[in-house]
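Whiteboard transcription, Tuesday session. T.W. wrote the C-alpha cells on the left side:
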C-alpha cells in the first residue's frame, strides 16, 4: 500500500490531523493499535481552549461542540475553606469550553467515516523504517498478516506508550521529566455538577477538582498517594473525602451517586526533544505529557496538529520545506510554556507532604495573593485559556 502521510495512532491528534489533511486532498492512513470501542472508552480531558475549538470547527466537527459544549468564562479556586472566582473573560476576553475528549474523539471518528478514511484498527507491531530517507515506510501486522505502507512522511500520534518516540535514537533524544509524588483518582457520576463552573481546591488533605461533562454528568478528582489503588476507594470513601476538601458551602450542595467510572492517573511532566527526525514527526502525548491540573494535554496535542498541518500544506502545495524543518522548534516553544503553567498549577494546588506545614502556608499565601491581585489573575487566566499558537 502507498499513501502520502502515514499516521500512527487513532486518538484525538491522529484523527484530527487525518481530517485536516484530507480536507487539503492529502492522502493518509491511520494505524491504530486498539479497537475503536477501546479508544472511545477512554475518559480523559474535559476543557478545550478557544484555539482547539477553532481547529475542530475547521475540521468540520464543531456542531455538537457548539450545541453541547459548556462555555466557561471563569473558574472557582478554593483554599482554606474559602473560594473565589477567577474571571477569564474579564482578564483575557476569552473563555474555555467544557466538552469531554471522548465526545471530541467520537465526533472525529464520525467525520472520518464520512470521508471514507482509511483507519486500520488492531494494527500490531507498527514500526517506522527509513525515516531519514525520502522513502520512509511503516510495517505492521493485521490479523497475523505482515503489511507495509510506503509513504512520504510518518507522523507519531501514538501517545506516551507508543513506538514513534522510541524510533528516534536515544543518542539524539533529550528527555526532561518530573514525576509527582501523587496521583488523581477520578470519578464519573450521573449527578448534577456541584457548581456551574469548575472548582480547583487546595487543601492540607490534598487537591480536589469538581468538573462536569453535562448537566447530569459530573467529573470529580481527588489527589491520592501513589500507594493507593482504585479498589481502595469505595464510592462512600470518595464522596466523603471530596466533601472534606472543597468549601463547606459546596460540600453541602454536592449531590452524590454511584460512580459509573473510577480510575487512577499518575501525574508527570515529560518532554522529549526533538519532535522530529528525518521524515518522522511526533505529535501530542507521543512527545510530551503534562499533569492534567492545567487542562493542557489535549490542547497541546491540537496546537501540535496545527503547526504540522500548516507545514505539510506548505510542503505539498507550495513545495516549501521550511515549516517542516522548523516544526519541532515551533511546537516545543508552546509546549514548554504550557508545561511550565501545568507544573505551577500542580505545585500550587497539591499537597506535598515532604514540604510540611511551611509548604502548605506558602501555597495558601500564593492563592491569597492571587485572589487580591488582578495582575496575578491575568497571568493565570491567559495561560489557562491558552497562549497564542
Ligand atoms: P492518545 O494517547 O490519546 O492517543 C494515542 C493513540 O495511539 C491511542 O489510541 C493508542 O491506542 C494508539 N497507539 C499507541 N501505541 C500505538 C502503536 N504502537 N501502534 C498503533 N497505535 C498506537 N488532558 C487534559 O487536557 N485534561 C485531562 O483531564 C486529562 N486527563 C488524562 C487522564 C489520563 C489517564 C491520561 C492518560 C491522559 C489525560 N489527559 C488529559 C491527557 C490526554 O487527554 C492527552 O493529552 C490526549 O489524549 C493526547 O492525545 P494523543 O496525542 O492523540 O494521544
Ligand atoms: C476534566 O473535566 O476531566 C478536567 C477538567 C480540568 C482539568 C483536568 C480535568 O484541569
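and on the right, the sequence the group agreed on:
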Amino acid at each position: 500500500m502507498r499513501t502520502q502521510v502515514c499516521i500512527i495512532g487513532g486518538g484525538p491528534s491522529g484523527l484530527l490531523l487525518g481530517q485536516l489533511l484530507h480536507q487539503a486532498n492529502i492522502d493518509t492512513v491511520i494505524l491504530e493499535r486498539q479497537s475503536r470501542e477501546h479508544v472511545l472508552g477512554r475518559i480523559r480531558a474535559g476543557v478545550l481552549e478557544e484555539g482547539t475549538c477553532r481547529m475542530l470547527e475547521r475540521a468540520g466537527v464543531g456542531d455538537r461542540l457548539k450545541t453541547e459544549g459548556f462555555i466557561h468564562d471563569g473558574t472557582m479556586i478554593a483554599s482554606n475553606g474559602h473560594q473565589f472566582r477567577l474571571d477569564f473573560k474579564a482578564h483575557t476576553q476569552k473563555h474555555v469550553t467544557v466538552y469531554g475528549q471522548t465526545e471530541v474523539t467520537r465526533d472525529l471518528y464520525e467525520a472520518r467515516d464520512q470521508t471514507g478514511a482509511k483507519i486500520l484498527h488492531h494494527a500490531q507491531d507498527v514500526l517506522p523504517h527509513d525515516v531519514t530517507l525520502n522513502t520512509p515506510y511503516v510495517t505492521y501486522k493485521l490479523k497475523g498478516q505482515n503489511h507495509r505502507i510506503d509513504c512520504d512522511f510518518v507522523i507519531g500520534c501514538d501517545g506516551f506508550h507508543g513506538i514513534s518516540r522510541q524510533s528516534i535514537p536515544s543518542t539524539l533524544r533529550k528527555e526532561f521529566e518530573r514525576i509527582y509524588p501523587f496521583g488523581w483518582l477520578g470519578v464519573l457520576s450521573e449527578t448534577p455538577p456541584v457548581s456551574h463552573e469548575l472548582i480547583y481546591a487546595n487543601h492540607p488533605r490534598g487537591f480536589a477538582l469538581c468538573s462536569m461533562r453535562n448537566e447530569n454528568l459530573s467529573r470529580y478528582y481527588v489527589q491520592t498517594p501513589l500507594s493507593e489503588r482504585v479498589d481502595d476507594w469505595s464510592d462512600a470513601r470518595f464522596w466523603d473525602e471530596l466533601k472534606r476538601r472543597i468549601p463547606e458551602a459546596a460540600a453541602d450542595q454536592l449531590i452524590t451517586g454511584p460512580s459509573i467510572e473510577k480510575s487512577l492517573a499518575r501525574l508527570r511532566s515529560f518532554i522529549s526533544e526533538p519532535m522530529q527526525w528525518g521524515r518522522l514527526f511526533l505529535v501530542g502525548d507521543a512527545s510530551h505529557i503534562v499533569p492534567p491540573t492545567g487542562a493542557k494535554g489535549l490542547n497541546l496535542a491540537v496546537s501540535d496538529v496545527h503547526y504540522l498541518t500548516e507545514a505539510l500544506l506548505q510542503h505539498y502545495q507550495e513545495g516549501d520545506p521550511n515549516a517542516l524543518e522548523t516544526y519541532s522548534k515551533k511546537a516545543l516553544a508552546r509546549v514548554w510554556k504550557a508545561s511550565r503553567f501545568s507544573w505551577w498549577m500542580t505545585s500550587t494546588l497539591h499537597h506535598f507532604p515532604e514540604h510540611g506545614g511551611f509548604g502548605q502556608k506558602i501555597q495558601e499565601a500564593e492563592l491569597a495573593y492571587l485572589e487580591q491581585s488582578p495582575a496575578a489573575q491575568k497571568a493565570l487566566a491567559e495561560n489557562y485559556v491558552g497562549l497564542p499558537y
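Someone added at the bottom: Residues 5-72+95-176+268-345 form a domain with the FAD/NAD(P)-binding domain fold (CATH 3.50.50.60).
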